[in-house]
Amino acid sequence: MPRVRFFDISVEDPEEAIRFYTNVFNWQIEKWDGPRPYWLIKTGDPTLPGIDGGMGRRKSRLQSVTNFIDVPSIDEYAMKIEEQGGLIVQPKTAIKGVGHLVAFEDTECNMLAIMEYSENAN
Question: What is the rounded CA–CA span in Å between residue 60 and residue 24?
Fold first, then answer.
């Protein structure tokens, strides 16, 4: 059964957001060594319930927090989303060394994403 595995926070000012989340929740936030500016967030002990996330610059004022659901086949689940009335808003996109993602709106206009993790993604 696919589960929420990651969250993404869209921000205008990464430095201010890092200050906020570090001081309020004591989250550990480090810049990702990837192809675009992005920061990884560790929210606590990985042996306890919860998920980690990341943050990147907001591209649209409508962006907020997106939950990423881990799926075994991005193509299969993208098809299921459309068959059930969801709307693909970002087609299958590779994140080098991480996997493939598809962002979508559910039937209630909530933004989510599915992710098929693969270190071989280009």
Answer: 26
